[in-house]
Each structure stands twice: as C-alpha cells, then as structure tokens.
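User: Quick sanity check before I run a bigger batch. Here is a single chain. Can you write out its predicted 3D structure?
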Amino acid sequence: GIVLGFVAYGFFMLLWEITPLDLGTSLWVVLLCFVLDDLRYYWVHRFGHRIRWVWASHVNHHSSQHYNLTTALRQTWTGTFTFMMLVRAPLILMGFHPAMVLFCGGLNLIYQFWIHTEAIGRMPRWFEAVMNTPSHHRVHHGRNPRYLDANYAGVFIVWDKLFGTFVPEYEKEKVDYGLVHNIGTFNPLRVAFHEWVAIWRDATQPGLSLRDRLMYCVMPPGWSHDGSRTMSDGIKRRHLEAHPEDAGT
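Assistant: Done. Predicted structure follows.
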C-alpha cells in the first residue's frame, strides 16, 4: 500500500507537469481546494458504499457495533487497491498543486475524527445545516433500513442535501451500529480482508458468465447473479412496505 501510495503521488506530479494551470498557494486557493476536495471525498465515499470492490476496502470502518472515537481509527489497509486516489486527478489538472490537494485531504480526515461520538447530541442548528456533525455521521454508521446509504459527507453535509442522500437522525429510532450482516469477530485480519475473500468466492463460482463475475466486483454489496441476496435499496423498500408511515421521513 505504501509503495502504491508513492506511485500515486508520482502520477500526481506527472499530471502537475503537464497541466498548463497553476492557481498558486494563496489562502483563497487553499480554501477553494479544501471545498472541492470535500466534494471529491463525498463521491469517493459514496462509491465506497455502492461499488463492492471499493466497499471491500471501506467495510472495516463500519464493522464496529459501537460508535466512539476509536471507530474513526478503523481505517482501511487496502484503500490503494481501489484506485480511488485517481479521483484527485481533476483537482490537479485544474491547477491545485498535488501537495496542497493531499494536505486538504488530510485536514478533511482530521475533521472527521471528532464526529465519531455519542457524547455530543446535536450542534447548533446553523452548524447542523451546513457541517457534518456527530448526529449526521451516526446515521451514516447505522444499519437501520432507513439509515442505510446516507450522509456520505466528510466536512460539509450540504453535499448530501444537494445530491439527495441526506437523512436526519430521528430521536424515536436509535441508531443500530454495524453492518447489515455483522461478522462477529475481533480478528483484525478477518475484519480487514473478509469482503475481499467473499468477492473472490462469489466471482469464481463455476458456471458464471464473464459479465456476472464482473458484476460481483462493481455492483453494490448484496448483488447476486440469481437474485438470492438483497441490496440496500431492496432492504429499504421492504422496510417501507412494512412501515408505510416512514415514507417521506
């Protein structure tokens, strides 16, 4: 992973050499880079829940059935293999120096540390309206049907509101943390690699077409070639069928 990280940075520097744009390093440029990098984070995070190959790297962060600051430290061992770092390429081609882009990405992750807590209820209304908060991120870590695939924001929750993935935390429904199907182990190797192993087993089943093998990698978690499993969309739909009073909430 470290080696591939250096390779990725080398690629970023190559992009920097070929782009004709250089926005400089003024404070306003850094602030703009931070905002745009957070938009990048939103989409990478969303891909991480909707593309199984990327989810295999991200799943260990969601494997905890508790929610506290240690949950924030459950970071991927295999993120480089998803090649999601390439999503930073447009920022560099726009004229933001690679070091600045990576610096802003680091600040983004530092911000997210404090929101992994149940000790803080809700922040002031104006802050909740714009920023990602413990309340918003608790929803993201929930396995409740209504909370699935929501609140992907890193710093600014406005991205979720803009792209239709925002779900508020409901006082009447406590967040149930963890995975849809919890793995029931503290073995760090299994936590880090179980989804990669599952993808391999699914994609190498005998008798599958090449398309089905590929779909096991790129479709959302829960997809199966024979429809025997349920993706998050189906889980949410079944929940609404059983609880129509939750529609629109």
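Residues 1-249 form one domain.

User: Great, the batch can go ahead then.
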